[in-house]
Design a protein that fits this description.
Strand order of the largest sheet: 1-2-3-4-5-6-7-8
Structural class: alpha/beta
CATH topology of the largest domain: TIM Barrel
Number of helices: 14
Radius of gyration: 19 Å
């Protein structure tokens, strides 16, 4: 099957502008989607968009030239449409609508995956945003297979299709499935692709070249979105696209040093200890060295102490 686009997807609190900058610098991603902007009952201030997506200052692209599409989350069609229009006015190359976030806090306020229970509301949201945004720009959506049963997917996809979305990403699990590896159901995406004349993007359990090819074969989708796997394997984009060799540990630790310097200097410095540990929690699935190093830093709270451990690991890896 031909290789289509590869999209770096959103991960709330993880794949922020700095991470997008670093990962698009070393990978040939075709598109990034931001963490979601929560929309309730107003057009959000421009500052919210610039903070979430500083790439707006660069024509809606990362420094290496990868387009970045803003994602919105909410339940009110009118306000989502107004904010969709504002996002593209500020320079976002289209907008994405989140109907897949499984977080309990989001779902309790009828956002994200909670709307999978209400395909009619999904239709109204997508339709309103599609009508508000210039037809030359994409309005996409991201869903799961359903709330607790993949048979719910048909009605959900139909709602997105009838509302004239440009394209749709399907995470091949239900909300209740969470992220359980054995719950992945790629074949349901193929069923939707056969039924609807709507460009589909497959998402879920893509960790390397082999799983990407297996996903393409099972879903019959050329286009893929990766999220967690991009943190496990920092050069996953090029591994999937070109069957490139997995990034060496020496190169990974160099990337971590670079990330640390940027993060410590930025306004999110206070979050650095938790953020770097979070990244190590992913890396340790791919790199035994990361697992050992995670044990050394997991109890450290001071930035200087953590960076000293990383710098020593960097020296050891490059000897």
């Amino acid at each position: 099957m031909a290789n289509g686009r590869l999209i770096l997807g959103p991960m709330e609190g993880v794949l922020d502008a700095l991470m997008r900058e670093m990962l698009t610098d070393i990978n040939d991603y075709d598109l990034c989607v931001t963490e979601f902007v929560r929309v309730v009952d107003q057009v959000l201030p421009d500052s919210v968009y610039y903070k979430l997506c500083p790439e707006l200052h660069n024509g809606g692209m990362t420094p290496s030239g990868t387009p970045v599409r803003i994602q919105l989350l909410g339940q009110e069609p009118g306000w989502l449409a107004e904010n969709a229009m504002r996002a593209v006015e500020l320079g976002s190359p289209g907008v994405d609508l989140n109907f897949g976030c499984p977080a309990k806090l989001v779902n309790r306020s009828r956002g994200g995956a909670a709307l999978l229970k209400d395909p009619e509301q999904i239709y109204q949201i997508v339709k309103a945003s599609r009508e508000a945004v210039d037809s030359a720009l994409p309005v996409s959506a991201k869903i799961r297979l359903g709330w607790d049963d993949p048979s719910q997917c048909d009605e959900i996809v139909d709602a997105v299709y009838q509302a004239n979305a440009t394209e749709l990403t399907i995470h091949a699990r239900t909300k209740e499935d969470g992220y359980k590896a054995d719950a992945i159901k790629w074949h349901h995406i193929a069923e939707m692709k056969a039924k609807y004349n709507l460009p589909l993007i497959a998402n879920g359990e893509i960790w390397d070249y082999a799983s990407a090819q297996a996903c393409r074969e099972a879903t019959e989708c050329d286009d893929l979105m990766v999220c967690r796997g991009a943190l496990n394997l920092p050069n996953l984009g090029n591994v999937v696209k070109y069957n490139a060799a997995h990034m060496s540990w020496a190169d990974v630790i160099s990337l971590l040093i670079r990330y640390s310097k940027y993060e410590i200097e930025g306004y999110k410095a206070v979050y650095y200890p938790n953020r770097i540990k979070q990244w190590f929690a992913y890396l340790r699935d791919e790199y035994p060295e990361a697992k050992a190093l995670f044990a050394d830093i997991r109890r450290l709270q001071e930035i200087k102490a953590i960076t000293q451990v990383l710098e020593q690991a960097h020296k050891d890896a490059h000897q």
